[in-house]
Amino acid sequence: MLKFIALRLLQGVLVLLGIYAVTFVLVAATPGSPFSSERAIAPEILAQIEAFYGYDKPLGERFITSLGNVLQGEFGPSAVYANRTVTQIIGESFPISLTLGSISLLLALLLGIPAGILAAVKRNTWLDYVPMSVSMAGICLPTFVMGPLLALVFGLILQWLPVAGWYGPEFMILPATTLGLYYAAYFARLTRGGMLEMLNQDWVRTARAKGVKESTIIWKHCLKGGLIPAITFLGPALAGIISGSFVVETIFQIPGLGQWFVRAALNRDDFLVLGLTVLFAAMIVLMNLLVDIVQVALNPRLKYD
Amino acid sequence: MPLLEVNDLTTYFHTRDGVVRAVEGVSFSLERGETLGIVGESGSGKSVTCYSLMRLIPEPPGRIERGTAMFEGHDLLQMSQKELRKVRGNGIGMIFQDPMTSLNPYLRISTQLIEALQTHRDIDKKAALHKAIEALEEVGIPGASKRVFSYPHEFSGGMRQRVMIAMALITEPALLIADEPTTALDVTVQAQIMDIIKQRQNDLGTAVILVTHDLGVVAGSCDKVLVMYGGREMESGSVEQIFYRPRHPYTRSLQKTIPSLQTKGQELYTIPGLPPDVSKPIHGCAFFPRCPYPKTDKAEGASPELEEIEPGHCWSACGFCDSSTPIESVLAKAGEVAEDGVPASAGEPA
Fold it and tell me: Which of A196, A201, A206, A222 should we substitute to test contact with B (largest number of B Cβ atoms within 10 Å)?
């Protein structure tokens, strides 16, 4: 198992290197530069700025330098926010997205998985139809509809919760609900599908023929296999949810990581784009590894190799 | 009192396309230690009969319409789910057709083996495990004390069926229902599995209901036989009665299809036509459309009654045909007609 993890981590590092290289080339190939602005800048000043950020050097040299910095944990200065480094920006905003994401995910799992199990066990009854219709609506309603809707009802009409900002636990409720409900809907549907597949297996009939209780059949015989689709989805979902959602963070004015993805691209903030891309890729690599480990733990027919 | 007495068991499936009459008024009884073979073609209602007894048919769409099944004095068909759970795996064990899918791939063999014990007996895990290892040894699994902790995918099909047998018999039930236990297995393994079932039956004094379409297996290991067709009972009796003095044209046709009883080099006999569509009501004898026997002038449509022709030997007395002549001469006659240019398959549905 350790060998498997080490190998996968090594693969992950190679993947990240590849992603870094491709992103670097793409960013460099994009027309314009981070330093061009509507205001005319004197050519000698521009040359100085470019020299400061290393843009006067050939592309190959720039790549080597920046890669060297990255390996030391520094993505470089932000090309737009002059006195902040990329690492600082990520360091400030990532914990916020991580907190919001974790709460949302917890909510999604606690809501979605029990709903999915219930729907599968009570299939074709109202206990199936109601949660499944709600989850279908949850998937179809984008967060930019759900978010303002929740803000309108609970923030403006009922005046129970703050609608914007990030100053304490009560500020987390609406954005976490918006994000959580969306993922809960997916988990519910995936869990229902997985559980239904398990409940229709021949071995369930065998268990019944042994006089095993229905509850034992669900928990002991079906849950492991039934959760596999949801867990497969969990990997990429986890990476996406904790690295912040641009939409939710913009709606609720949260200074998280999600907004930076868009702002960095719009501002042509080269180093920030690189830093965020690598961070997001690293998260996907790690989460997928985690999911694979959980899969092997759940399914005895899978082996590490 | 017989161990199991089934009377007028009727199971329908109410599907969107209509009512499928899977089992229609089947009756039989079984003494302790006895073996009953249920034979018939695919779709004749053999398996549904067994699942109905265990109440394992999916409800809905399935429904047991009427009948009684008295097991040790209690009607299985009237039991509550709670009472039923006490019988399943305890009084009645069951083995299924496909050992590849009948064991849970996510759980260890040990977990699945001791489950029935833990459910029905007051036994600690260690003692249960000990019994599980013993049970595996008794069905001939080498290295049982180690292999008990394996997962099902680490076993071959034959080995898995052995595990199924060990699992079904671990609580020493009075009745074992074996639904085509050898159909999905390799021919060489089939005989081994049948031997194990017979041997364990002798050790424990278990009664067995053996569903099969292998008449050879029935002749070799059953006391009684129930011949089913189109969800109905065609003929029933002791092995001797059914094999030496068959009365119903269907039983005779079925026997005629046993390859080893036919002359070498001759084309194998098959019953012309297809099994009846049980989603439509059947009037009269279910076998009538495929019956090779010459028809009498008695009207088609009257339901045949079960008639006891000797003690314990019943047949569905159709009366539309003169079934006193042996099938060989009937077929020979039909063959002559065929050579004259008239189709031999009289009675085959268009």
Answer: A206
Tell me whether residues B107 and A221 touch, CB distance under 8 A.
yes
Report helix angle A270-298 to A59-71, nearest 10: 50
Closest partner residue to A211 among B98, B120, B153, by Cβ? B120
End-to-end CA distance of chain B: 47
How far apart CA A59 and CA A62 sit, in angstroms, is 5
In residues, how long is chain A?
305
Fill in the DSSP letter of residue A219. Answer: I
Nearest-by-Cβ selection for B106 from A208, A212, A224 = A224
B180 Rama sector, left if φ>0, alpha if ψ -120 to 50, beta otherwise:
left
ipTM of the complex: 0.83
- Cβ–Cβ below 8 Å for B151 and A300: yes
How far apart (Å, rounded) are the C-alpha atoms in residues A240 and A277?
12
Task: Print pLDDT tens along chain B (350 aa).
Answer: 888 899 889 999 998 888 888 888 888 889 888 999 999 888 888 889 999 999 988 887 888 889 898 988 889 888 888 999 999 988 899 998 888 889 999 999 999 999 988 888 888 889 999 989 988 888 888 888 889 999 999 998 888 888 998 898 888 888 999 988 888 778 888 888 888 888 888 888 899 999 988 888 888 888 999 998 888 888 888 888 888 888 888 888 888 888 777 777 777 878 877 888 877 777 777 787 787 777 766 656 567 777 777 887 887 777 667 667 777 777 777 666 554 444 444 444 43
Bigger pLDDT: A273 vs A74 = A273
CA angle A115, A117, A121 (to 5 degrees): 120
Residue B235 bridge partners (DSSP) = B227, B315
B243 reaches A (C-beta below 8 A): no
| DSSP-derived secondary structure letter, B263 | P
Distance CA B147, CA B72 (A): 36
Q: Contact B84/B76 with Cβ under 8 angstroms?
A: yes
Tokens of B95: 């083995």
Q: Kindly report whether the peptide bond that precedes residue B61 is cis, defined as omega within 30 degrees of 0.
A: yes
Q: How far is B314 from chain A (nearest CA, A)?
A: 31
Residues in A touching B112 (Cβ below 8 Å): 206
SS3 letters across B178-194: EECCCCCCCHHHHHHHH
Alpha carbon B249 to its chain centroid, in Å, reads 20
CB contact under 8 A, B101 and A201: yes
Q: What is the distance between the alpha carbons of residues B347 and A267, in angstroms, rounded to a whole number?
A: 86
Contact B270, B345 (CB under 8 A): no
Q: pTM for the full model?
A: 0.81
pLDDT 10s digits, A166-193: 888 888 888 888 889 989 999 999 999 9
pLDDT band, very low/low/confident/very high, at A119 (cuts 50, 70, 90): very high
The distance of B105 to chain A (nearest Cα, Å) reads 7
Rg over CA atoms, chain B: 22
Q: Are A197 and A232 in contact (CB under 8 A)?
A: no
Question: Is the previous residue joined to B246 through a cis bond, with omega within 30 degrees of 0?
Answer: no
The CA distance from A119 to A131, in Å, is 7
Tokens of B92: 């009645």
